[in-house]
Design a protein that fits this description.
Structural class: mainly alpha
Largest sheet: 2 strands, antiparallel
Radius of gyration: 21 Å
Helix content: 10-25%
Number of helices: 2
Strand content: under 5%
Number of strands: 2
């Protein structure tokens, strides 16, 4: 007849690449957290605290915050969020920030119009960790 035929293939592993459609509703079944138009959780870039959350210690980053992106982008945002979580819990952090320079005014200041050295990015020195943990300058 005119019906589609079913074809079966033997396989040891099947990977479904279906795309990211936003955070699952089971994460927030009561709908307490604010979402953007793409159903991603709202949290300010660089701060990552969940907007509208009744908990001050809830952070959102990566694909659940900004939607589907490159894996390296999600990893960088996760690392940057880890520094914010560490600072929230400990009052300070020795973890490096991984945000782009323009989004990370804590350590860098982008050149402004009228600056004498308009092509230079200014870097601010941060305090060294009191615990003796050394952080490689290469990781920044």
């Amino acid at each position: 007849g005119g019906g589609a035929a079913v074809v079966e293939y033997a396989a040891d592993l099947v990977i479904l690449a279906m795309g990211f459609t936003g955070p699952d509703k089971s994460v927030d079944p009561m709908g307490m957290l604010q979402r953007d138009s793409g159903s991603n959780f709202k949290a300010q870039y660089g701060e990552y605290k969940a907007e509208g959350s009744p908990w001050p210690n809830l952070f959102m980053c990566g694909d659940c915050r900004k939607g589907a992106s490159l894996v390296v982008t999600a990893i960088a945002e996760g690392r940057d969020c880890a520094a914010r979580v560490d600072a929230f819990m400990m009052g300070d952090t020795s973890l490096p920030r991984a945000a782009p320079l323009a989004a990370n005014p804590t350590f860098f200041q982008m050149p402004q119009k009228g600056d004498k050295e308009a092509s230079l990015v200014k870097r601010f020195q941060r305090k060294k960790a009191k615990s003796g943990i050394q952080v490689s300058e290469a990781s920044e």
